[in-house]
Each structure stands twice: as C-alpha cells, then as structure tokens.
Amino acid sequence: MIPARSPRAAFGAAMLLAATLLAACAAPSEAPAPPAAATVTPAGMEITLTPRRPAGEKVESIDVTLSIREPALAQGDTFLSMAIVRVMAPGALNRPETLVAADAAGPLPLTIEEDPVDSSEFRQDRRWIAARATQGDVTVRYTIEPRVITSATRPGPLIDTRTELTGFYGSGNTMLALPVSGWPREVALSWNLTELEPGARAASSLGEGDVTATVTAQNLNNSFFFAGPLRSQPEDGAGDFAIYWITPAAFDLDGAAAWTQEAYTYFNGFFGASDTPFRIFMRTTERFQGGGGGGFNSFIFGTVGGEDRDPDEVRGLLAHEALHHFVGGYGDGGGAGGQQWYSEGVTNYYTVVLPYRAGLTNIDHYISDFNGYAKSYYTNPQSNLSNTEVTRLFFADGNAQIVPYNRGPLYVALTDAQIRAASGGELRVDNLIFDFIDSQEKAEDGVALWHDLAEVYLGEAGSAQFRAMMEGAPLDLPSDLFGPCFVAEEQMLQNFVIGFRPYKDEEGATRAGPIVPGTAAEAAGIQRYDIITNPDALGSARDAAPGTPVTLALRREGAAPFSLTYTPWTPPLPGKQWVRTRVPEEDCNL
Question: Most Cβ neighbours (<10 Å): which of 31, 59, 365, 549?
C-alpha cells in the first residue's frame, strides 16, 4: 500500500498528537470579523531593483531602493540586517557606509554594527541602527555590485550575486538589507530594466516581473532574482511551474524541464500540498561553481557553459531540489545546521522512490540508485561519524559532507521496511514522514520529534535504532530491504573518487580544483590549479574496472611538465548490493 498524505493513515501518530488536537477543539471559537472595507492599502514594503550598465555590456551594479511603511523605530533600535558573508558567499554591498535612509523628518542617521569575523565563513552579519526615532515611512537606498569571479573562486552554495551575459542574478541572502522586525509583511517587488538591452525580462522566486506577495524576511533572503535576456519554459513564464535561464544550455534542458514538471505534479499530489507556483532557475558559469540549492518556492542549479550533461543526472538533480520544497527541514534549515540527516536523507530517498511510483523511471533505475547510495555508504571512511561530527566537519571534509546523502536514504529505507513488516503492509515510512512534516514547524526539537514518532511506529526498537544511527552506528541492512523483488549480495566494493573536480580556466585548459583531503589524489601529490593536459584520461578511468590506476600528464607553475599515477578508487571494502529476483514487478510494492 502506498499512502497519500490525505487522508491520513497513521493511527499511531494521530494518538501522539491527540492531546494537542483536543486542546484546539476545546478552545472557544471567535466571532467572525466583519468584512473589511474595499480600500487599497500600500504594501508594507516596496523593493525596486535597477541594474546599471554604464559601459553598455555587463551589469556593473544594481541600485536597490526599499520603501518601508511606518517602521516606528525608537532611537537605538536595530533597523536593518544584511549578510557580510553567508555560507562562503560574500554579501554584494561592498561599501556599507553608502547605504542611506530618510523619512518624513529628513535624512535618518544610522550607525553600523558588525558580527565578529567567522573563520568558517558560515555566517557574519552587518546591522544598521537608528540614531533617532523614525517619523512615518522610511526610504532606504544602496548600491550592490556583482561578485568578481576568478579561477581561485571556491565553489559554494548558489546564493552570490553575479553577472551572466548582459544580465545578472543573485539571492536575497547577498542582495537585500532587510528590516529585522515587522514580519511577515506584504512586499511589492518592481524592476527598472531601462539600462538593459531591449526585450530584457526579470523574474524572481516571488513571480514573473513586478509582483506582490506576503512573505517573511527568511522567504526574501531565500529568494532568487534574475534579470536580462531571460528565457523560460513556458515562454511567458505563466502557470504554476516555470524554468528560467539566461545562457542557452548545451544539453536537453527542455526535456529535463518537462520531465521535472511531471514529477513536480506527482510530488504535489503525494504530499497533499497546495498548488503554490514553483520556479527553477539555471545559472551558467565558466567553470563548476556548485550543484544546486533550494529557495523560497523555487530552486537554482548551476551548469558550466558548453558542457553536455547526462539526462538522468540532470533529472535526478532537478527532482532532488524540487523535493526539498516538500520535505523541508527544521530549525535554521540549511548549511551545517545539523538537520541534513533528515532534509538530505529523506529527499534523496524520495528522489529515487517517487519518480518510480510516478512512472517516470523504471525498476532498474530504482535499484541502481539505491545501490549507488549503498556503495558510497560502505566505501566512505566517514560513514560511521555521529551526526554531531558530520555537522562539525560539513564544510571541511568532503567525505563527512556526503554522509547524510547516503546513510540518510538507507536509514529511511530501513525504517520503511520495518514499518511495513510491523503493520502487515498497511503503513509505510511515508506515514511517519507526513506526521513529521505536519508537526515540525511547531516542534522545538526536530530530533526529539522524529525519535518520538519512530517509537510510535516501531516501539522502543525504532527509537533506539534512530539514536544509534545518529551516533554513527553501522546500519544493519537486511537482504529484503527493498521488498521481495530484490535480494542482497555480499560484495567487495570500490567507489570512483577522482579526489578533485576538474574545471576549465579562462584559456580553456583543464585544471584540478580543490583537492579532497585523505584521497589518493592528495597522496599522489596532485595540487590545486595543476593543469591536466590529458583530461580524457579521467573519463576513461571512470569507465575502467574498479582499482585501475590512471596517469595524468600535468603542468604546474614553476615546474617542468610531469606525470603522476594514482588509483582514483576507494580501497576494496565489504558491503551489499541488491539484485533482481524473479518476483513480478507488479508484486514489488515499491
């Protein structure tokens, strides 16, 4: 049985929440408010974005104007906050002293306060404090500048502000200085594109062109903003699902978008979600600068100009990021907030399961993806880190960073198998996840909430298993983990690990990106920025038998050309892979 979120099937979870529901029912009802008068009220805040191209080519700056309705600040109140750095991405306001404000009494003096430097580059904020009480509405003006990108720019989350062709893109995290109080509020976003080329368009996570929406500050910070020679599917950007890009893709973007729209429609029905419009944004860079990231009713993904991509890889990426919209997180959400075991684990689980249920992938694709998770889990030397250690090392250790993406979905699959067995097939892990999603916003502790739900569905064994997983105990994955259609085989496993991400520099040469600590590439002596003069060898190595070495011809500044040979595979380690049985597919119940 495959449950849908509505109607709910999880009797046990309903018992857990019964006290809350009874309390709500016992509360006296309020008389309905009289209908409001039909008057037009200005939005609580207006944002105007004006890209500037004084030289007639690339966008050099973006003027930002905020009109904030009656903030009623007292002297000494903190007025605005903006990122200096957010998850390795610098804020786009390079001259904070140029931010100015005025109200009915004239110029509003502001003092600046900054957080101490965060050596991890995770979060550092700047705040503007009112030097006197405000009178009436306040207008704020400042100018941001796109980030200057070089071959040394580190890949990271796709939230920085950049140029692309004759347009630009960015996120609220790096573009907006927002009031610290008064949320949620109605925000009217408008664009002034007069300095862009004829036919320029703009779109954001809030909608196509000028748009008004009621949002929180976090919603705005997590919104993406694109303007320039913008293209979209559908062409006019209308409807509940649209994808936007500036640079034409070198792969079948239209096909990937159409597939993802079908998947998104299925996700909406499965999670019982509203038909909130959802938007995908693609940014194109000269070299790899990050994979993808979720935003407010949207997500963004990156691609390298002129790079062909495997259709399955693109579809998996888009499905994964779209699912974040439904799965969500808890607490502060992204970054190294400690909740990736849930947000990435559940999302990766459904990235495989739901497209299969929707008829968009086949059973071979289904088990191949789960076998990929298993291979990474069994061969990753950090798979037994505790969740606390994963969080601590998330941005410093590539092996630690991928733990939630592989251990997470396998733990969810294990929980699913156990719930199916315990309920005689009447319930699935879906039911537990629906309960978690329904309750997570009000829960003070997401870990405690999952712990309690695991006990509801599986008793003390379920909560104990969850605690053990969070402490890094090895998962005991049974042979029938994925039901009767698959059986596990014990194998010696090796995973292909180059040890760095190759990219093309401004001259078209292939270089080594940051070297992953502890890999064979590091041990062999490959260094960041080394030029690889035989890059095809890397593709051949991926297709070779596990354990096959590769020889790279390298050039390094200040040295004669040389070669290095290393084995871009993890050491052989025991693990499990699942193979197909003779059970008919219609009896698989996946």
Answer: 59
CA distance 348 to 559: 44
Q: Where are the domains of the chain?
A: 41-147+170-201, 328-492+574-587, 496-569
Residue-wise DSSP of 490-519: EEEE--B--SS-EEE-TTS-EEE-SPPTTS
Cβ-contact 433, 446 below 8 angstroms: no
Asked if CATH classification 3.40.50.300 holds for the domain at 328-492+574-587, the reply, yes or no, is no
Global pTM?
Answer: 0.81
User: What is residue 106's predicted lDDT score, i.e. its pLDDT?
Assistant: 97
Mean pLDDT of 205-219: 96
Residue 246 has what DSSP assignment? S
Q: What is the pLDDT of residue 394?
A: 85
Token pair 């880190």 is found at 385
pLDDT digits (tens, 9 = 90+) for 403-418: 999 999 999 999 999 9
Given a contact cutoff of 8 angstroms between Cβ atoms, the answer to whether 257 and 233 are in contact is yes
Distance between CA atoms of residues 532 and 303, nearest Å:
21
Cα gap 270→95, rounded to integer Å: 47
Q: How far is CA 251 from CA 258, 279, 314, 540, in A?
A: 14, 19, 9, 21
**How confident is the prediction for the chain on average, in pLDDT?**
89
- Residue 257 phi, psi dihedral angles, 5° rounding: -65, -40
DSSP string, 307-327: ----HHHHHHHHHHHHHHHHH
Instruction: Name the strand (E) or helix (H) holding 208.
Output: strand 207-208
Quick one: which of 366, 367, 380, 352 has its CA closest to 493? 380
Average pLDDT over residues 503-525: 87
pLDDT number for residue 17: 35
CA distance 221 to 228: 21
Tell me which residue of 122, 136, 117 sits closest to 69, measured CA to CA: 136
- Measure the CA dihedral 200/205/208/210, to 10°: -90
Maximum distance among all alpha carbons in the chain?
Answer: 83
Specify the fold of 496-569. Pdz3 Domain (2.30.42)
What is the DSSP-derived secondary structure letter of residue 27?
S
